[in-house]
Amino acid sequence: MLSYNEVRERSYIVHQGEPNEVLSSKIFRKQQRKPVNQIKLKNLITGKQTETTIHQSEKVEPASIETRDIKYLYSRRGESWFCEVDDPSDRFSIPDERIEDSKPFIREDDIVTALIYEDEVVGIKLPIKVELEVREAPPNIKGNTSSGGNKSVTLETGYTVNAPLFINPGDILRINTETGEYVERVEKA
User: Most exposed residue of 50, 70, 112, 117, measured as fewest CB within 10 angstroms of its CB?
Assistant: First the structure.
């Protein structure tokens, strides 16, 4: 069991009988009261985010989340299909609601990390930064760079991101999967 001050960001705990990822954690003390840990949770099964407070006297059960690499195949009818990396015939699906935040950043045949709770895949974890190719970008208009402007570009997964004006179709961009924002343009090898 974890005490209130051991619950930190990016850890997994059991809250109301289901596994949750801790998105944020802030320990503070109000006036003369005892310290509390105010945490924001994301339910790994439903995807719902909630906020709760853990008091100094409370204990929290850590969720035993196992991980393993899997390969993304395709999406159809609200389900995303994956397979084992070394055994393509061992296929399984995950409802899109469970991986809604990750879907804009994965392509066919990408290797991702599966989060497994009690022998069931409850979600996936992506690297913090991924590289995706630009499919569509409006042309750059001469003269509108004085304010260091941005334009909206569409990536190969269909995700739209704001990028600098010098980005063209065919460029490879590094995208932060946690914020969904442009990080930098990657030089082609």
Answer: 50
